[in-house]
Amino acid sequence: METPKKSTVGHRNPGIPLDLAWIKDTRVDVPAVERAAESFGAPGAITKDSRPSLLRAITVMDLTTLAAADTHERVRRLCAKARQPLPTGVLQLLGLEPGDFQVAAVCIYHPFIKTAREELHGTGIKVATVSADFPKGLAPMKERVAQIRSSVEAGADEIDVVIKRDHVLQSNWQALYDEVAAFRAACGDKLMKVILGTGELQTLDNIARASLIAMMAGADFIKTSTGKETINATLPAAIVMTRAIREYTEKTGRAIGFKPAGGIRTAAQAIEYLSVVKEELGSRWLAPKLFRIGASSMLDDIERHLQQLAG
Prior knowledge:
Elements: H1 20-25, H2 30-40, H3 51-59, E1 61-64, H4 72-83, H5 88-93, E2 105-108, H6 113-120, E3 126-131, H7 141-154, E4 158-162, H8 165-169, H9 173-187, E5 191-195, H10 204-216, E6 221-223, H11 235-252, E7 257-259, H12 267-281, E8 293-295, H13 298-310
Parallel strand pairs: 1-2, 1-8, 2-3, 3-4, 4-5, 5-6, 6-7
Protein backbone atom coordinates (compact mmCIF):
# COMPACT_ATOMS: atom_id res chain seq x y z
CA MET A 1 0.00 0.00 0.00
CA GLU A 2 1.35 3.40 -1.01
CA THR A 3 2.11 5.72 1.90
CA PRO A 4 0.28 9.05 1.51
CA LYS A 5 2.62 12.00 1.16
CA LYS A 6 2.48 15.06 3.36
CA SER A 7 0.59 17.70 1.39
CA THR A 8 2.11 21.06 0.58
CA VAL A 9 0.67 24.31 -0.71
CA GLY A 10 2.89 26.10 -3.18
CA HIS A 11 2.29 29.13 -5.36
CA ARG A 12 1.94 26.78 -8.30
CA ASN A 13 1.51 23.10 -9.00
CA PRO A 14 4.46 21.69 -10.97
CA GLY A 15 2.36 18.76 -12.16
CA ILE A 16 3.43 15.19 -12.81
CA PRO A 17 3.77 13.02 -15.93
CA LEU A 18 0.51 11.79 -17.42
CA ASP A 19 -0.51 8.54 -15.72
CA LEU A 20 -2.95 6.81 -18.08
CA ALA A 21 -3.23 3.75 -15.86
CA TRP A 22 -4.55 5.94 -13.07
CA ILE A 23 -7.07 7.48 -15.47
CA LYS A 24 -8.16 4.08 -16.77
CA ASP A 25 -8.77 2.83 -13.22
CA THR A 26 -10.84 5.88 -12.26
CA ARG A 27 -14.52 5.09 -11.73
CA VAL A 28 -17.21 7.05 -9.92
CA ASP A 29 -19.81 5.38 -7.70
CA VAL A 30 -22.70 7.42 -9.08
CA PRO A 31 -25.40 6.36 -6.56
CA ALA A 32 -23.05 7.15 -3.66
CA VAL A 33 -22.28 10.59 -5.09
CA GLU A 34 -25.98 11.28 -5.63
CA ARG A 35 -26.75 10.31 -2.03
CA ALA A 36 -23.98 12.58 -0.77
CA ALA A 37 -25.28 15.44 -2.92
CA GLU A 38 -28.74 15.05 -1.40
CA SER A 39 -27.30 15.30 2.10
CA PHE A 40 -25.25 18.41 1.30
CA GLY A 41 -28.20 19.95 -0.48
CA ALA A 42 -30.34 20.06 2.65
CA PRO A 43 -28.55 22.56 4.95
CA GLY A 44 -31.74 23.63 6.72
CA ALA A 45 -32.72 27.14 7.69
CA ILE A 46 -30.11 29.88 7.85
CA THR A 47 -29.78 30.92 11.50
CA LYS A 48 -27.38 32.93 13.64
CA ASP A 49 -25.18 29.83 13.73
CA SER A 50 -24.77 30.28 9.98
CA ARG A 51 -23.11 33.69 10.34
CA PRO A 52 -19.48 32.44 10.46
CA SER A 53 -20.05 30.38 7.31
CA LEU A 54 -21.61 33.32 5.48
CA LEU A 55 -18.73 35.60 6.41
CA ARG A 56 -16.24 32.94 5.35
CA ALA A 57 -18.03 32.58 2.01
CA ILE A 58 -17.36 36.26 1.34
CA THR A 59 -13.64 35.90 2.05
CA VAL A 60 -13.26 33.06 -0.51
CA MET A 61 -15.33 34.76 -3.19
CA ASP A 62 -14.08 35.61 -6.67
CA LEU A 63 -16.41 38.55 -7.22
CA THR A 64 -17.15 38.35 -10.92
CA THR A 65 -18.42 40.36 -13.85
CA LEU A 66 -18.22 38.69 -17.26
CA ALA A 67 -20.90 40.50 -19.22
CA ALA A 68 -20.76 41.78 -22.78
CA ALA A 69 -21.83 45.18 -21.43
CA ASP A 70 -18.95 45.49 -18.93
CA THR A 71 -17.29 48.91 -18.75
CA HIS A 72 -14.33 50.33 -16.85
CA GLU A 73 -16.75 52.14 -14.54
CA ARG A 74 -18.62 48.90 -13.83
CA VAL A 75 -15.32 47.22 -12.97
CA ARG A 76 -14.41 50.12 -10.67
CA ARG A 77 -17.71 49.64 -8.80
CA LEU A 78 -17.02 45.91 -8.57
CA CYS A 79 -13.59 46.59 -7.09
CA ALA A 80 -15.10 48.97 -4.53
CA LYS A 81 -17.51 46.19 -3.54
CA ALA A 82 -14.58 43.78 -3.33
CA ARG A 83 -12.73 46.10 -0.93
CA GLN A 84 -15.79 46.49 1.30
CA PRO A 85 -18.23 43.64 0.52
CA LEU A 86 -20.82 44.72 3.11
CA PRO A 87 -22.28 48.20 3.70
CA THR A 88 -21.07 50.09 6.75
CA GLY A 89 -24.46 49.75 8.44
CA VAL A 90 -24.42 45.96 8.16
CA LEU A 91 -20.83 45.84 9.41
CA GLN A 92 -21.83 47.87 12.46
CA LEU A 93 -24.72 45.52 13.20
CA LEU A 94 -22.24 42.62 13.07
CA GLY A 95 -19.69 44.40 15.26
CA LEU A 96 -17.21 44.66 12.40
CA GLU A 97 -15.21 47.53 10.95
CA PRO A 98 -14.63 48.47 7.31
CA GLY A 99 -11.44 46.73 6.25
CA ASP A 100 -11.94 43.79 8.63
CA PHE A 101 -12.40 41.45 5.69
CA GLN A 102 -12.67 41.46 1.90
CA VAL A 103 -13.19 39.09 -1.01
CA ALA A 104 -10.36 36.96 -2.38
CA ALA A 105 -10.33 38.22 -5.97
CA VAL A 106 -12.19 39.97 -8.70
CA CYS A 107 -12.63 38.09 -11.98
CA ILE A 108 -12.96 40.17 -15.14
CA TYR A 109 -12.28 40.15 -18.86
CA HIS A 110 -8.80 40.98 -20.16
CA PRO A 111 -9.45 44.62 -21.22
CA PHE A 112 -10.18 45.56 -17.60
CA ILE A 113 -7.04 44.13 -15.97
CA LYS A 114 -5.28 47.50 -15.70
CA THR A 115 -8.35 49.18 -14.22
CA ALA A 116 -8.77 46.43 -11.63
CA ARG A 117 -5.08 46.54 -10.70
CA GLU A 118 -5.27 50.28 -10.12
CA GLU A 119 -8.42 50.00 -8.00
CA LEU A 120 -7.12 47.09 -5.89
CA HIS A 121 -3.52 48.20 -5.46
CA GLY A 122 -2.26 47.50 -1.96
CA THR A 123 -5.39 45.60 -0.86
CA GLY A 124 -4.15 42.04 -1.34
CA ILE A 125 -7.22 41.27 -3.47
CA LYS A 126 -6.16 39.31 -6.53
CA VAL A 127 -6.97 40.25 -10.11
CA ALA A 128 -8.20 37.21 -12.02
CA THR A 129 -9.07 37.09 -15.70
CA VAL A 130 -10.59 34.50 -18.01
CA SER A 131 -8.56 33.32 -20.96
CA ALA A 132 -7.81 30.57 -23.54
CA ASP A 133 -10.83 31.47 -25.69
CA PHE A 134 -13.24 31.68 -22.75
CA PRO A 135 -15.95 30.40 -22.64
CA LYS A 136 -15.85 28.01 -25.63
CA GLY A 137 -12.18 27.00 -25.80
CA LEU A 138 -12.36 26.33 -29.54
CA ALA A 139 -9.89 28.84 -31.00
CA PRO A 140 -6.58 27.59 -32.44
CA MET A 141 -4.13 26.66 -29.71
CA LYS A 142 -1.64 29.34 -30.73
CA GLU A 143 -4.29 32.04 -30.20
CA ARG A 144 -5.34 30.64 -26.83
CA VAL A 145 -1.78 30.55 -25.52
CA ALA A 146 -1.20 34.08 -26.82
CA GLN A 147 -4.27 35.27 -24.90
CA ILE A 148 -2.85 33.83 -21.68
CA ARG A 149 0.55 35.44 -22.19
CA SER A 150 -1.11 38.77 -22.94
CA SER A 151 -3.06 38.65 -19.68
CA VAL A 152 0.07 37.73 -17.74
CA GLU A 153 1.91 40.68 -19.30
CA ALA A 154 -1.03 42.97 -18.46
CA GLY A 155 -0.59 42.13 -14.77
CA ALA A 156 -3.26 39.55 -13.94
CA ASP A 157 -2.47 37.60 -10.77
CA GLU A 158 -4.62 34.60 -11.69
CA ILE A 159 -5.63 33.11 -15.04
CA ASP A 160 -8.85 31.10 -15.41
CA VAL A 161 -8.38 28.96 -18.53
CA VAL A 162 -10.97 26.78 -20.24
CA ILE A 163 -10.30 23.37 -21.74
CA LYS A 164 -11.51 22.04 -25.07
CA ARG A 165 -14.31 19.75 -23.91
CA ASP A 166 -14.00 17.54 -26.99
CA HIS A 167 -10.73 16.13 -25.61
CA VAL A 168 -12.72 14.70 -22.70
CA LEU A 169 -15.71 13.55 -24.73
CA GLN A 170 -13.39 11.69 -27.11
CA SER A 171 -11.24 10.31 -24.25
CA ASN A 172 -8.22 11.99 -25.83
CA TRP A 173 -6.38 12.25 -22.54
CA GLN A 174 -2.95 12.97 -24.01
CA ALA A 175 -4.33 15.96 -25.92
CA LEU A 176 -6.03 17.28 -22.78
CA TYR A 177 -2.82 16.88 -20.77
CA ASP A 178 -0.75 18.62 -23.46
CA GLU A 179 -3.28 21.46 -23.70
CA VAL A 180 -3.29 22.18 -19.96
CA ALA A 181 0.50 21.81 -19.76
CA ALA A 182 0.85 24.43 -22.52
CA PHE A 183 -1.45 26.73 -20.55
CA ARG A 184 0.66 26.11 -17.46
CA ALA A 185 3.80 27.15 -19.31
CA ALA A 186 2.11 30.30 -20.62
CA CYS A 187 0.89 31.25 -17.13
CA GLY A 188 4.41 31.14 -15.74
CA ASP A 189 4.32 31.73 -12.01
CA LYS A 190 0.74 33.04 -12.06
CA LEU A 191 -1.95 30.94 -10.39
CA MET A 192 -3.86 28.90 -12.97
CA LYS A 193 -7.46 27.79 -12.52
CA VAL A 194 -8.59 25.19 -15.08
CA ILE A 195 -12.28 25.36 -16.01
CA LEU A 196 -13.60 21.92 -16.94
CA GLY A 197 -17.08 22.88 -18.11
CA THR A 198 -18.52 20.01 -16.08
CA GLY A 199 -22.07 20.49 -17.34
CA GLU A 200 -20.88 19.56 -20.83
CA LEU A 201 -18.76 16.51 -19.93
CA GLN A 202 -21.75 14.10 -19.88
CA THR A 203 -20.64 11.73 -17.08
CA LEU A 204 -19.22 11.89 -13.59
CA ASP A 205 -16.44 9.53 -14.73
CA ASN A 206 -15.44 12.13 -17.30
CA ILE A 207 -15.43 14.86 -14.65
CA ALA A 208 -13.20 12.76 -12.39
CA ARG A 209 -10.75 11.93 -15.18
CA ALA A 210 -10.60 15.50 -16.48
CA SER A 211 -9.98 16.73 -12.93
CA LEU A 212 -7.05 14.36 -12.45
CA ILE A 213 -5.48 15.16 -15.81
CA ALA A 214 -5.77 18.91 -15.25
CA MET A 215 -3.93 18.50 -11.95
CA MET A 216 -1.30 16.21 -13.50
CA ALA A 217 -0.67 18.90 -16.12
CA GLY A 218 -0.18 21.67 -13.56
CA ALA A 219 -3.55 23.14 -12.52
CA ASP A 220 -3.36 25.09 -9.26
CA PHE A 221 -7.18 25.03 -9.04
CA ILE A 222 -9.83 23.04 -10.83
CA LYS A 223 -13.04 24.94 -11.54
CA THR A 224 -16.47 23.61 -12.46
CA SER A 225 -17.82 25.97 -15.07
CA THR A 226 -17.55 29.12 -17.14
CA GLY A 227 -20.97 30.26 -15.98
CA LYS A 228 -22.05 30.33 -19.63
CA GLU A 229 -23.09 26.67 -19.96
CA THR A 230 -26.67 25.42 -19.72
CA ILE A 231 -25.62 23.41 -16.64
CA ASN A 232 -23.03 25.04 -14.42
CA ALA A 233 -21.87 24.16 -10.89
CA THR A 234 -23.67 21.22 -9.28
CA LEU A 235 -23.15 19.39 -6.02
CA PRO A 236 -22.44 16.00 -7.69
CA ALA A 237 -19.71 17.61 -9.81
CA ALA A 238 -18.29 19.32 -6.73
CA ILE A 239 -18.16 16.04 -4.82
CA VAL A 240 -16.40 14.25 -7.67
CA MET A 241 -13.89 17.06 -8.11
CA THR A 242 -13.06 17.40 -4.42
CA ARG A 243 -12.59 13.64 -4.15
CA ALA A 244 -10.23 13.79 -7.14
CA ILE A 245 -8.30 16.55 -5.37
CA ARG A 246 -8.08 14.43 -2.23
CA GLU A 247 -6.78 11.47 -4.22
CA TYR A 248 -4.24 13.61 -6.06
CA THR A 249 -3.06 15.21 -2.84
CA GLU A 250 -2.65 11.83 -1.15
CA LYS A 251 -0.58 10.50 -4.05
CA THR A 252 1.56 13.55 -4.84
CA GLY A 253 1.66 15.64 -1.68
CA ARG A 254 0.43 18.68 -3.61
CA ALA A 255 -2.72 20.42 -2.35
CA ILE A 256 -4.86 21.70 -5.23
CA GLY A 257 -7.62 24.27 -4.97
CA PHE A 258 -11.28 23.96 -5.90
CA LYS A 259 -13.59 26.61 -7.39
CA PRO A 260 -17.30 26.05 -8.02
CA ALA A 261 -18.69 28.73 -10.32
CA GLY A 262 -21.78 29.43 -12.35
CA GLY A 263 -25.34 29.55 -11.07
CA ILE A 264 -24.33 30.04 -7.42
CA ARG A 265 -26.62 32.84 -6.34
CA THR A 266 -27.81 32.25 -2.77
CA ALA A 267 -26.48 32.14 0.76
CA ALA A 268 -27.83 28.60 1.11
CA GLN A 269 -25.79 27.49 -1.90
CA ALA A 270 -22.67 29.05 -0.40
CA ILE A 271 -23.17 26.98 2.74
CA GLU A 272 -23.68 23.84 0.64
CA TYR A 273 -20.35 24.24 -1.14
CA LEU A 274 -18.55 25.14 2.08
CA SER A 275 -19.93 21.93 3.56
CA VAL A 276 -18.76 19.84 0.60
CA VAL A 277 -15.22 21.19 0.85
CA LYS A 278 -15.03 20.79 4.62
CA GLU A 279 -16.37 17.23 4.51
CA GLU A 280 -14.39 15.99 1.51
CA LEU A 281 -11.11 17.88 2.00
CA GLY A 282 -11.05 19.25 5.54
CA SER A 283 -11.14 22.65 7.21
CA ARG A 284 -7.69 23.51 5.88
CA TRP A 285 -9.21 23.98 2.44
CA LEU A 286 -11.64 26.66 3.65
CA ALA A 287 -9.29 29.51 2.82
CA PRO A 288 -8.60 31.53 -0.35
CA LYS A 289 -5.39 29.66 -1.15
CA LEU A 290 -7.38 26.47 -1.72
CA PHE A 291 -11.03 27.40 -2.17
CA ARG A 292 -12.90 30.01 -4.17
CA ILE A 293 -16.54 30.53 -5.08
CA GLY A 294 -17.14 32.25 -8.38
CA ALA A 295 -20.17 34.49 -7.99
CA SER A 296 -21.70 37.81 -8.84
CA SER A 297 -25.18 38.00 -7.30
CA MET A 298 -24.56 35.68 -4.32
CA LEU A 299 -23.07 38.49 -2.25
CA ASP A 300 -26.38 40.38 -2.27
CA ASP A 301 -28.23 37.40 -0.79
CA ILE A 302 -25.55 36.86 1.86
CA GLU A 303 -25.79 40.54 2.79
CA ARG A 304 -29.57 40.25 3.13
CA HIS A 305 -29.30 37.25 5.45
CA LEU A 306 -26.56 38.80 7.57
CA GLN A 307 -28.63 41.92 8.04
CA GLN A 308 -31.63 39.85 9.11
CA LEU A 309 -29.53 37.77 11.50
CA ALA A 310 -28.01 40.87 13.09
CA GLY A 311 -31.33 42.67 13.44
